[in-house]
Amino acid sequence: MRESPALIESRAFGVRHIPLLRPLGWLARGWRDLVRCPLPGLLHGLALALFGAALAVLAHDHFWLLSGAFTGFLLVAPVLATGLYAVSRALEKGQRADLSVALAAWKPEGRLMVFGLLLAFAGTGWVLTSASLVTGFAAAPVTTPLDFLKVVVLNDHSPLFQIWLLMGAFLAAPVFASSVVAIPLLLDRQVSVLAAVLTSWRVVQAHPLPMALWAALLMALTVLGMATALVGLVVIAPWLAHASWHAYRDLISTSGLEERP
What we know:
mainly alpha; globular; single chain
């Protein structure tokens, strides 16, 4: 059976072996990048925190919508960090790394725009699914975080919260597997979207435990940032973005392949 061109293209990228706890090293290196070049990252984190605050204000009496929107944010966050991947790449090469480098990464680029749209569709799908579950099956109206906690999370007579979590995981797992190294790869090398996604899946298949740990760290730190009234996201969001660049660099061998300028 003839293999697809994207699969053949994906195999041009070697997957490096990593130990289980390597994700902790990515966090350490991501923090170092943030400290070395803080302005782009902090502005990025501030923009996300302000967007989250605006969303909270607009949907303050519709927590069933807000819960889906905040968890959907986790699906689209990787593409929002494109500029910070560029900053980490510049730091790695010893080049100038400042706000202009981050902004330049956002120039119109077909492949990144396609991937961003796909993630946006996935995020929107989860928001609608989450809202439908909570409004359609909750035992009482959910309008506040306390309502969500009492009616959905702590309701012993309904499996709604478990179903909500399972549905979220069902959507988030393939999105994570498709994007964990795909966006930094698209930024860094001349590769098609499908080849980048297939490469990302190869990484997850080769390292299920380290990737599960990485996913758990991303989730836990993002939830921590949200739990601090979004203030923590100002630092945590860029920290994780820089760390994600180092995950890509550790996991993928790109030697001898054409680099994007």
